[in-house]
Amino acid sequence: MESNENFTLNSNSSSSTNFQLNLTAIEYTIIILHAILFVFSFFGNILVIITLVYCRRLWSTVNAFLLNLSISDFLLGLFCIPFTLSGNIFKQFIFGYYLCKLVPFLQGKVIHNFFKIHFQF
């Protein structure tokens, strides 16, 4: 079952980008799973961060590492999941020139910090 959807992307200039998006049932499933992953990543890590910051009896060395890990996971979910999904669906970057330059840099920094925290050498 395929659906044809037309999207128009307007930028600040007078031109607009038109393209057709054909999504299959598998791609809709991937979108739904990414959305669920993003919501759990976002709110779950926010809850851990709030709990570890405001509950003073949880302040310890181990929980400092957990806080750092939670912040890293939060940034990973914030900068990697939505932009990677949209790039895979639309097959082009639709967020403008400045974000086109900024997002890969932020994704690289987040992934670097994520591995640095998980695999401390």
TrEMBL record:
Membrane protein topology class: Multi-pass membrane protein
Name the UniProt record assigns to this protein: G-protein coupled receptors family 1 profile domain-containing protein
Biological classification of the source: Eukaryota, Metazoa, Ecdysozoa, Arthropoda, Chelicerata
Main location: membrane
A GO term, aspect molecular function: G protein-coupled receptor activity
Superkingdom field: Eukaryota
Keyword Chaperone (UniProt): no
PANTHER family in alphabetical order: GH23382P (PTHR24235:SF29), NEUROPEPTIDE Y RECEPTOR (PTHR24235)
Record bears the keyword Transmembrane helix: yes
Keywords assigned by UniProt, alphabetized: G-protein coupled receptor, Membrane, Receptor, Transducer, Transmembrane, Transmembrane helix
GO cellular component terms given for this protein: membrane
InterPro entries (alphabetical): GPCR_Rhodpsn (IPR000276), GPCR_Rhodpsn_7TM (IPR017452)
Compartmental location: Membrane
